[in-house]
Design goal:
This protein has 14 helices and 4 strands. The longest helix is centred in the N-terminal third of the chain and has 34 residues, at about 90-125. With about 350 residues, the protein is mostly helical. It has one domain: Up-down Bundle (Rhopdopsin 7-helix transmembrane proteins). The protein has a two-stranded antiparallel sheet. Helix 10 (about 225-260) packs antiparallel against helix 11 and helix 11 (about 265-290) packs across helix 12 (about 295-305). It has helices at about 1-5, 15-45, 50, 55-85, 90-125, 130, 135-150, 155, 185-215, 225-260, 265-290, 295-305, 315-320, 330-335; strands at about 160-165, 170-175, 220, 225. It is found in: Cell membrane. Keywords: Cell membrane, G-protein coupled receptor, Membrane, Receptor, Transducer, Transmembrane, Transmembrane helix. GO terms for molecular function: G protein-coupled receptor activity. InterPro entries: GPCR_Rhodpsn (IPR000276), GPCR_Rhodpsn_7TM (IPR017452).
Length: about 350
């Protein structure tokens, strides 16, 4: 503990210009990320039709994770880069690393869940409403958070590695203990493996859709879906793929630098990689607004509410594009009006 209490000196391996840039970016990303993710969370919860979508549940998990990161980790990150040292004690340093890596895992596993959901909708359409019931969705969400932060318990307790301060970089991270560190194993099982699952799943989605289009070209239905429903689900799948690719572009440089350059031979590259990783918690709301009109409808409804003009029951902005999606919780009842067994979604 005495070693953890020791603060690094101002003579760090990072140039002062790099630390100033990092501090400014952390402050900007913190403000923009908290605002953007909070607005997105509220907008989705207030939009009655979009709120009930299965995919939205996992998107909300992603938003909450990014909101925690922007409100907790980024302000502390800005502080340490401004001071060029960690001054907040060993316990908070450990919790910083715990929340940082845990949130990163939550984000990635939420994307895995979204990808599997998209594939299930396309490949097993007839079984979709049975597979994604309310209970099963909440179980998946609970597992995502428990597994993500559960992976960090061994280093937190000092059983396998430890969480603490790296003095040369004044960063709170996973450190070796007794010559052992779980860092590279966590990279493989907590980052690389989920990325492989996502890439394989989207590849399967692509080939499945391509094959279906070729076989059923010119017909009005595809696996029980109308043309409009298929189009909306395709747009949502494209949106989620875009989010994953942005996440990968943001976090992959940091992972590569942490694994291949432990000695910080290229400090500027480490700073840039870190800034890119922070940006991943900010860009998602921008992607939602820019690429999908369903989410723009949710933002529009929130804006109306803020202007003291509450959304009417018709939800005019969202009804055309959201209400008939096969990802909607009431979709089965709409297609089968004589069915007296409501879905659990």
């Amino acid at each position: 503990m005495e070693e953890l209490m020791h603060n690094s000196t101002l003579d760090t391996i990072y140039p002062r210009e790099a630390t100033i840039l990092a501090a400014v970016c952390a402050c900007v990303f913190s403000a923009v990320g908290v605002l953007g993710n909070f607005i997105t969370t509220v907008a989705l919860l207030m939009h009655p039709k979009l709120r009930g979508h299965v995919t939205t549940m996992f998107v909300l998990s992603l938003c909450v994770s990014d909101l925690l990161f922007c409100s907790i980790n980024l302000p502390l990150t800005a502080s340490r880069y401004i001071k060029q040292q960690w001054t907040l004690g060993p316990r908070l340093c450990q919790m910083f690393a715990f929340v940082f890596y845990g949130n990163e895992a939550v984000s990635l596993l939420s994307m895995v869940a979204i990808t599997i959901n998209r594939y299930t909708l396309i490949a097993y359409y007839d079984m979709y409403s049975q597979i994604y019931t309310s209970t099963k969705i909440w179980i998946q969400l609970l597992l995502i958070w428990l597994v993500s932060f559960g992976l960090m318990i061994p280093p937190l307790l000092g059983v396998w590695g430890q969480l603490g301060l790296e003095h040369d970089t004044f960063s709170c991270t996973i450190l070796p203990k007794d010559g052992l560190s779980p860092k590279k194993y966590l990279f493989v099982f907590g980052f690389a493996l989920p990325c492989v699952v996502i890439i394989v799943s989207y590849s399967c989605i692509y080939w499945r859709v391509r094959e279906s289009k070729r076989k059923l070209e010119g017909r009005s239905k595809l696996s029980g879906q109308t043309a409009r429903e298929k189009e909306e689900d395709s747009r949502l799948t494209t949106l989620m793929l875009t989010i994953f690719l942005c996440f990968l572009a943001c976090f992959l440089p940091l992972m590569i630098m942490n694994v291949t350059d432990d000695g910080i031979t290229y400090p500027w590259l480490h700073i840039i990689a870190s800034i890119l990783a922070w940006a991943s918690s900010v860009v998602n709301p921008l992607i939602y607004a820019a690429t999908n009109r369903q989410y723009r409808a949710a933002y529009g409804n929130l804006l109306k509410f803020c202007k003291n003009n509450p959304v009417t029951k018709r939800t005019t902005w969202g009804s055309r594009t959201v209400g008939h999606s096969s990802n909607s919780p009431n979709y089965v009842e709409k297609r089968n009006p004589l069915n007296n067994q409501p879905t659990k979604l």
